[in-house]
Amino acid sequence: MKHIDPTREQFDAFKALPRDTPIMMLNLIRLNETATYPDGETCSGAEAYRRYGEHSGPIFRELGGEIMWRGHQECMLTGPTDKHWDIAFVARYPNAGAFLAMVTNPDYQAIVVHRTVAVDDSRLIRFGVDESGEGFAG
Fold it and tell me: Left (φ > 0), alpha (ψ -120 to 50) or beta: where does 46 sit?
């Protein structure tokens, strides 16, 4: 099963959580080889996702968002070996309200088509921020 956008139930669960605390969003993205726009234009999934980043970046940053980490998958050590992610990053938002403001912004909604045609499969996972510790368990 592929996942590109949240279901209504997932989005409702997100909205039910506190909106005034910082959040980290883990993004795992597998790109389509070819992205096909509604008007028939085609390009690579990587190019379409580049366009998405170019247009969404200013909105993201204006709301206080920042990329905390970005990397690329080298191997799957634990988990299904048939899963590969082309893009992985952690985005920090000053609060969940900022994320909601981004995805409901009309300018953002006008350009999200780039992400929609670029992405073959994805995971977007919200994390709260805990205090750092010396060990794995905190």
Answer: alpha
Q: Does residue 20 contact residue 128 with C-beta atoms inside 8 Å?
A: no
**Strand 119-128, strand 87-93: pairing:** unpaired
| Spatial separation of the C-alpha atoms in residues 138 and 126, rounded to whole Å | 18
Amino acid letter for position 102: M
CA–CA distance, 65 with 92 (Å, rounded to integer) = 6
> Cβ-count burial of 2 within 10 angstroms (0-12 exposed, 13-18 middle, 19+ buried)?
exposed
Q: Which residues pair with 104 in a beta bridge?
A: none
> How crowded is residue 58: how many other Cβ atoms within 10 Å of its Cβ?
11
Residue 71's φ and ψ, nearest 5 degrees, are -155, 180
> Which residues fall within 8 angstroms of residue 131, CB to CB, at 6 or more apart?
138
Q: What is the pLDDT of residues 108-119, one digit of tens each?
A: 999 999 999 999
Residue with tokens 């170019």: 54
Lowest mean pLDDT among 1-5, 67-71, 84-88, 108-112: 1-5
